Amino acid sequence: MEHPAQQYYNPHLTAAEERALLRRNYLLLQTGQAALGLIGPGMLGIAVEARSGVIVIHFAIANRTAEIEEDIDDIIFDVEAFLSGGPEHHSQIASQVHVGQSDSTWPGRSHALLYLAKSPAE
After folding, report:
1. Secondary structure, 3-state, the chain
2. How far apart are the first and last CA of the chain?
3. How far is Cα 7 from Cα 13, in angstroms, rounded to an integer?
């Protein structure tokens, strides 16, 4: 049975590519829900990397503060809660924090981007 979202996919995707896309989109949605209300001015970027058995949430932050550390912990906790009982309930959740801009020096930049702060020049 076809998934209703398939009408929006490239028709040439393999079954494995389609599964990876569904997983990535699911993880982005759950992480976005977890981050609601927790993205402050010091949060410069959030990205999600779906590895086999591990979900890495990448953060780019302006600097380490107790408030940002608490926000990151809250996001991770909420992602774990949202994923419990679902297809990713056995996946480990890890975070990687980069202090600096969300440009090409940020390891999260090459993964599924959830949030990018506007640069000061914009």
Report:
1. CCCHHHHHCCCCCCHHHHHHHHHHHHHHHHHHHHHCCCCCCCEEEEEEEEECCEEEEEEEECCCCHHHHHHHHHHHHHHHHHHCCCCCCCCEEEEEEEECCCCCCCHHHHCEEEEECCCCCC
2. 46
3. 12
- Our CA angle for 119, 30, 18, nearest 5°, is 100
Spans in the chain with pLDDT lower than 50: none
As beta bridge partners, residue 59 has: 46, 97
- Rounded Cα gap, residues 23 and 48, in angstroms: 11
Signed CA dihedral, 81, 90, 27, 98: sign only: positive
Q: Are 48 and 91 in contact (CB under 8 A)?
A: no
Q: How far apart are CA 73 and CA 63, in angstroms?
A: 15
Q: What is the pLDDT of residue 121?
A: 57
